[in-house]
Amino acid sequence: MHTNNDLRNFFIVANARFFDNRIDPSYTIAFKRMRNDGEHIPTTKTILINSDFKKHGDMAFIVVLHEMAHADLHGYIGYEDKTGRGNGHGMRYQAKLDELYKLGAYDGLL
Ligand SMILES: [Zn+2]
Fold first, then answer.
1. What is the 110 CA–ligand 1 centroid distance (Å)?
2. 52 alpha carbon to ligand 1 midpoint, in Å?
3. What pLDDT is attached to residue 89?
């Protein structure tokens, strides 16, 4: 079972290794019962992960990386983020995921 603390520790390590610490360390990261797999809320600097993933091992971390990619793009190029409405996943977002993959962010996860 993963805890909020596991999410936080993963966030700290991933922010240093794959995002050059660009994502504000004051972000709140927490499991929540919700419909979506995850959500990035820029106004409150919050990343929420569906609590279903508490018991699904690495999936929780894959979703954290997904939301961190939104946070990163939002932070440094103001990329539009409309999680849950099918937007925010355009070419720049896909390029960001390719970059993460090449940096080895998914090693041991996929
Ligand atoms: Zn997304």
1. 18
2. 17
3. 86
Report CA 39 to chain centroid distance, whole Å.
Answer: 8
Q: Could you tell me the pTM of the whole model?
A: 0.90
SS3 50: strand
Extract the tokens encoding 89.
């996943």
Report how far residue 31's alpha carbon sits from residue 3's, in angstroms, rounded to the nearest whole number: 8
Q: Where are the domains of the chain?
A: 4-102
**Fold held by 4-102:** Zincin-like (3.30.2010)
- Is 7 a residue whose pLDDT tops 80? yes
Structural tokens at position 44 = 């409150």
Identify the residue whose tokens are 């993959």: 101
Instruction: Give residue-wise pLDDT tens across range 12-45.
Output: 999 999 999 999 999 999 999 999 999 999 899 9
Compute the distance from residue 84 Cα to the ligand 1 centre, in Å. Answer: 7
